[in-house]
Amino acid sequence: MSSNSSLDRALVSSLSSAALERASALGASEASVRVEEIHAQYVTLRDGVLETTVDDTTIGMGVRVVNNGSVGFAATVDLSSRAASHITQQAVDSASRVASARSGAFELVSEPGHGEVNWTSPFRIDPTSVPLAEKLELLSDWSRRLLNAPGVSHVSARVLAVTEYKHYVDSSGTTAAQKRVRIHPALDLVAIGDDGDFETMRTIAPPVGRGWEYLLGDGWDWEDELARLPELLVQKLKSPSVEPGRYDLVIDPTNLWLTIHESIGHATELDRALGYEAAYAGTSFATPDQLGTLKYGSSIMQVTGDRTAEHGLASIGIDDEGVEAQSFDLIRDGVLVGYQLDRSTAAVAGYNRSNGCAYGDSPLHLPIQRMANVSLAPGASDGPSTQDLICGVERGLFIEGDKSWSIDMQRYNFQFTGQRFFRIENGVITGQVRDAAYQATTTDFWGSMEAVGGESTYLLCGAFNCGKAQPSQVASVSHGCPSALVRNVSILNARAEAGQ
Questions:
Q1: Pairing with 295, which of 36, 43, 46, 436 sits 20 to 30 Å away (CA)?
Q2: Is residue 302 a contact partner of residue 337, using CB atoms and an 8 Å limit?
């Protein structure tokens, strides 16, 4: 672990030993300890002027036990051996109190011990170690350049950086030390017309599992995006409102990732499919009785869950139940073939092993089943470019960047907007349109996907703010995908639908 963390090996060893010894003495059949330190920094500028800075550190320890068929959890910010022993007692007591309310024994599918594991996400510069002055200098420079461009009225610039140190030890023999770094920079532009009308546009650079080098051009061409943004925004303000109807869509990964997240990622979480997760964002239409038969989409649709993807926001070495990171199929040739699992939902559904999707967003929170990096596979290495897909459309729209969305409680009926919608006429982009939103059901939409771009169009996008559970937890997750051609999709005029 880096010297930026206060969690040295001796401290973690003493805490985990105290907790596991106490759990064994109390008769727990299984126990695990997480000792974590999470640094989160947030910087925002409004029109080049500093608006907000946040530098937050969360540090603590959580213990989960299984005792007499019940699960118990307790946590503390007191990193002492005495506290470790105390919260282990609390976790066992909690399991005993839960026992009278349960309908059946709590089970976890087995996972072998993995010995000592050390894992670090790939990065060059820890973003939380970069001085505030350096962050401000870069964001101020970007803001000034954009504000000086014709037609730009306002600019907001922000960057969120997180460094997560996680130590996991369990009674099965796994001792894992992990460091995970992630960063999300973004700029929002506003243009106000002479008549008071206005439009907005945001950068489409995705959040990534990289360090500060991302803002210096490693992984994204910021110079190109900043140069293009003002003109695109001015064009958008002057563009016509979309005519409702049915269009063929060519969707860039910077927009398609969110449709994957909402209509596939959440729908293939097994706890939702089983009906266990219902209060927060609903269940899933993709129920276990349809596994192996549900036609989720066209035959070119190949979707995996992956906890190993390079620079993935949900990539790890060992999950928060001691399960090693894996890649696994969710949809093969358009058919539902798998789910995202943690050890308890795997046990309920009769699986032999979890695929490593347990995560707690804080040492003070119980690990729950969370989303892996759920990604749509591209075509062959020599497959079509985005331009090739556009050339195959007579009347359609090309979409870049995510914006607002809506989806029902079974992840089935949805509506998505975007940052930029471009008209396609006879295979040629002819300008932007405003106020567009695409609407479909999950199976109709993916069933209408006629082609995917080749590997050159593939991009890993995602979000920092996937919410789930009560009390609420937030997780970061990536979704890789190529550009895609989807035929005959319903397009709404969002302004007209809102009565404006």
A1: 436
A2: no
